[in-house]
Design brief:
- The protein has strands at about 5, 10-15, 20-25, 35-40, 45-50, 60, 70-75, 80-85, 90-100, 115, 120-125.
- It is mainly β and about 130 residues long.
- It is globular.
Length: about 130
Amino acid sequence: QVQLVESGGGLVQAGGSLRLSCAASGRTFSSVVIGWVRQAPGKERELVAAIRWSGGNSYFADSVKGRFTISVDNAKNTVYLQMNSLKIEDTAVYYCAADFQRIRGIPLSSGEYDYWGQGTQVTVSS
């Protein structure tokens, strides 16, 4: 059974940084795509970043491009989302999600992701 556990959320001032972690277990992850999806109150889910575990493909939403990076630590079975220059509009619950179906590329719709973590709150204050 696939398990995704997020950590690293919290309260930070605008301009600050946070690093989110997604610890994955329960399956071979070599062919998976891991995405970070956020949802703010009253807004739709937004895929902000994604990476193919085996390397070669990654994606960033325009809203975070140049500020967020995504990486994989194979030894720890963990995907990280480094968030820099945080803005108030980055405030949301951030979910880690996995897609095992896509063979190539990155699924850009959150609906394509099969497994989800419980989410971690990120709050950016002024």
